[in-house]
């Protein structure tokens, strides 16, 4: 996702901890233009994510 965002001229950031997610959102809000934040979720945490299909 990050490389795809960058290919389209957007900012792309990957985050996998609560601190990195917070930093990514702070940076995204300060950036002029769109930002894609790719949040990696551990397999055991995926059961907490609702199914949207």
Can you characterise this structure?
This protein is 36% helix and 19% strand. With 53 residues, the chain is an alpha+beta fold. It has a two-stranded parallel ribbon with strand order 1-2. Strand 1 (11-15), helix 2 (18-30) and strand 2 (35-39) form a beta-alpha-beta unit. It starts with a helix and ends in a 14-residue tail after the last strand. The model has no long low-confidence stretch (mean pLDDT 82).
Main beta-sheet annotation: 2 strands, parallel
Number of strands: 2
What's the order of the H and E elements?
HEHE
The whole-number mean of residue pLDDT values reads 82
First-residue to last-residue Cα separation? 20 Å
Indicate the radius of gyration in whole angstroms: 12 Å
Find the structural class using helix and strand composition. alpha+beta
The strands making up the biggest β-sheet line up spatially as 1-2
The share of residues in extended strands comes to: 15-25%
Could you estimate the helical fraction of the residues in percent?
25-40%
* Low-pLDDT residue spans: none
Count the helices. How many? 2
- The 3D shape can be described as globular
